[in-house]
Amino acid sequence: MSISIPKGTRDFSPDEMAKRNYIFDTVKKVFKLYGYQPIETPAMENLSTLTGKYGEEGDKLLFKVLNSGNFLQNVPVELLSGDKVLPLTNKISEKGLRYDLTVPFARYVVQHRNDIILPFKRYQIQPVWRADRPQKGRYREFFQCDVDVIGSESLLNEAELLQIIDLVFSKLGVEVTIKLNNRKILGGIAEIMGQSDRLTDITVAIDKIEKVGLDVVKEELISKNINDEQIKILEPILSLSGSNEDKLNRMEEILSESKTGLRGIAEIRTILNYVESLNISSTVELDLSLARGLNYYTGAIIEVKAQNIDMGSICGGGRYDNLTGIFGLKNLSGVGISFGADRIYDVLSAKDLFPQSSLEATRVLFVNMGAKEEIYCLQALRAIREEGISAEIYPEQTKLKKQLEYADKKNVPFVVIAGEEEMAVEKFLLKNMNNKSQKALPLRQLLDELKQY
Amino acid sequence: MSISIPKGTRDFSPDEMAKRNYIFDTVKKVFKLYGYQPIETPAMENLSTLTGKYGEEGDKLLFKVLNSGNFLQNVPVELLSGDKVLPLTNKISEKGLRYDLTVPFARYVVQHRNDIILPFKRYQIQPVWRADRPQKGRYREFFQCDVDVIGSESLLNEAELLQIIDLVFSKLGVEVTIKLNNRKILGGIAEIMGQSDRLTDITVAIDKIEKVGLDVVKEELISKNINDEQIKILEPILSLSGSNEDKLNRMEEILSESKTGLRGIAEIRTILNYVESLNISSTVELDLSLARGLNYYTGAIIEVKAQNIDMGSICGGGRYDNLTGIFGLKNLSGVGISFGADRIYDVLSAKDLFPQSSLEATRVLFVNMGAKEEIYCLQALRAIREEGISAEIYPEQTKLKKQLEYADKKNVPFVVIAGEEEMAVEKFLLKNMNNKSQKALPLRQLLDELKQY
User: Fold this and answer.
1) Pick from A31, A164, A404, B17: CA 20 to 30 A from residue B312's CA?
2) Is some CB atom of chain B closer than 8 A to the CB atom of A89?
3) In chain A, positions 267-326, which contact chain B (CB-CB < 8 Å)?
4) Strands in B251-314 per DSSP E
5) Burial level of B239, CB count in 10 A (0-12/13-18/19+)?
6) How large is the angle between the packed helices A244-254 and A259-277, nearest 10 degrees?
7) Contact list, B82 vs chain A (CB under 8 Å)
8) Domains in chain A, please, with CATH?
């Protein structure tokens, strides 16, 4: 029998779980410090909630759940001809697996609008599913970790999210660069190019600049019927250099004719002022090529990269003014970011940044020497666990070698051996598995040693 | 537009999440104290892994995921006639949502058998999905919370699980009765009735005794062709009374001819001896009618009920000798229990046992009085958060009344107001939202007050 799991999905072993929980626990702790609260939504949503929200390509990537019972009951015969896949799908499947956390969040806000306290500061850490072709680093089931505040237009929220990013990565020991842009600046650029209605084409193209370089971006723009003259306006903007202040001053001149553009610049200035007074230690860098391809950002655009490692963005987001509009609730502005758990995991692995303590499952294993010794050890185990120290006794009375191997494989740092000799003097032989030192101690001192570790 | 989620599924609000996390964090902490480690498995499993494992009824309750792309491509035309639902399903769907955590755990153990350290102590807290008819307390998506040790036959494991039950519910403040039985005793009873091959019918019937009473159980047994004489053997067993020791002594006589039955009694005695020496404070009660309907238990059967509340079992489990046999790995004995998160939630709600601190999202809200005050407050917020205290500032400069309402609705116990007056003397006005008292404090004392709470 071949035993496997669906392609693109993963089992998480105890070791992987410990590392993942270290990341999730760190972000959750920071979110809570800032007053964000968790919500969770069901894995399955109605397909009417999901379809049409991710573009045509996205719709194809939705995992659809077959209706229960006799799902063919009310299907018209003509749909069963074998080439009516899409209409048939709609008849036999009403539910799909969540594709991201954004649309369910929007649905949640609208559905519970009478119970929600605005501004609503929520975080959500749950798996999402996409029927994408699996490849290195791309899975069909993966976790998203979103934090948003909805119902407030204040730029203090943006600043707070930058603080959160700064604190999370400083706790994780990862030096990061936070890139900042503003959709209104991009809008201003399109405006002075005389191409306001082509904003999407322009931002999609310039979003690629880091990956493919200026020349390819130019080609793409030309293929979209943006002419040379217009590209000439764009070019100096894309190759701006200097400090954030230098760039903003230059842009202020370039965009002097665009109200929208100037508003974008003012917003960035406000956020950067907060950054300064908040002692954010990460580098915050204005990057006008940052567009994140997403159509729904309306203000700040944020992206985070780990320094000194070749890896895509590990966190990103921005402000959106119409998230809940798709479900009929207008004029609710929000801003949020999403932490990429899998990439953060890869960065911490590559840089060996998981602390030893986060990987420890059991601090001390008691060797099982027999029935009498067991009772003696169980009393000690009770006292140790009451101190909050994780401890176990090997459940079988078997060879010492096998029991020590178990401790070794499970990375248990201490082993206690207590046989007749130790019992006679009411002591426990404590063995340090790292340096192989050992000493016989009474219970009180055993506790102290284990606590100190 | 009607906004909803699939029937039988739930959104969890911040308040509900706080309560659920209080339960999950408590059990996780206890599991870890005993050296159990978490694993996670994918939401989708291959249908070949799931089908046939839960009986015919269970197969019908599996949520099946439609194959991606043109799922009709290789479907023979004759399956599309409209009445070939089952064979068609098998052609168009290869994956299903996990129905419980037991089968995925068995699959995990077999698939990763070369990496697992035996005995393998794992816990797993994940949602499962069943296409059951939704009703009060029964959902189509719900969380299971399983803890098992596999690869050890020692009864110390059973005792440890009883310790875990005892500690979890004592931490949660719930007084419980732990009911204990042993499948071998049930086997012995069937044996002396001369009905060893009818063990399932007998246990299914007696499992219902608490719900339906002795007479209905008798009727059911008669309908299964168990005769009066055989029922006479069973009757005194079902109405045994007295202490655990009394019951065991009486059963020892009744089962004196059954080796299996006597082994069951010996096992229970061993476990009860551990219970005594471990100072387990919950009532542990031998209950011979306990069978838990499940066919795969081979030794201990465990069930937990909250005292003084009318509610089904809130935790249960037992020993199984052949969990991984379904996937071709024989002779791996395990024992485990599962905590019923939803019912525990209901017990804690009914008894008002959620501690206030577990529901607190933010300890202090700073009122937003304007741009200058904001900067003054942000410095204080930084210091407060560095102490690990969750704090926020209202992001908008709006009416005081609205800001205080926000604090009130979010159950924030403290509010800080700092205007020009306070700034002039470098103080903060701390308002206790419960007793409405307030005092002006310098930052250092403000921190102390907030920490003390």
Assistant:
1) B17
2) yes
3) 274, 277-279
4) 283-286, 297-306
5) exposed
6) 160
7) 72, 75, 77, 80
8) 14-62+99-350 (3.30.930.10), 360-451 (3.40.50.800)
B156, B319 Cβ separation under 8 angstroms: no
CA distance A212 to A209: 5
Of B119, B117, B143, whose CA–CA distance to B130 is shortest? B143
Report the sign of the C-alpha dihedral through residues A206, A211, A216, A220, in that order. Answer: negative
Q: Which two tokens stand for residue B415?
A: 């509010």
- Contact residues, chain A, for B399 at CB < 8 Å: none
ipTM of the prediction = 0.94
Angle at A361 between CA A360 and CA A363, to 5 degrees: 75
Q: Which amino acid is at A399?
A: K
Buried b / exposed e over B406-427, threshold 16 CB at 10 Å, is bbeebbbbbbbbbeeebbeeeb
**Cβ-based neighbour number of residue B174 at 10 Å:** 20
Q: Which of B3, B81, B382 to mutate to test the interface with A (most CBs of A within 10 A)?
A: B3
Q: B24 — contact with chain A (CB < 8 Å)? A: no
The answer to whether the Cβ–Cβ distance between B14 and A39 falls below 8 Å is yes
> Rounded to whole angstroms, what are the CA distances from B80 to A83, A173, A374?
11, 58, 64
- Rounded to the nearest angstrom, the minimum Cα separation between A436 and chain B is 22
Cα–Cα distance measured from residue B292 to residue B303, given in angstroms and rounded to the nearest whole number: 8
Distance from C-alpha of A434 to C-alpha of A282, rounded to nearest angstrom: 36
Residue length of chain B: 453
pLDDT in tens, chain B (453 residues): 579 999 999 999 999 999 999 999 999 999 999 999 999 999 999 999 999 998 888 999 999 999 988 888 878 877 877 677 888 888 899 999 999 999 999 999 999 999 999 999 999 999 999 999 999 889 999 999 999 999 999 999 999 999 999 999 999 999 999 999 999 999 999 999 998 888 888 888 888 887 888 889 888 889 988 888 898 888 888 888 899 999 999 999 999 999 999 999 999 999 999 999 998 999 999 999 898 766 789 999 999 999 999 999 999 999 999 889 999 999 999 999 999 999 999 999 999 999 988 888 999 999 999 999 999 999 999 999 999 999 999 999 999 999 999 999 999 999 999 999 999 999 999 999 999 999 999 999 999 999 988
CB atoms under 10 Å from CB of A117, counted, come to 16
Neighbours of B218 (CB within 10 A): 18
Partner-chain contact B122 A10, CB within 8 Å = no
Closest CA to B151 of A310, A409, A277: A409
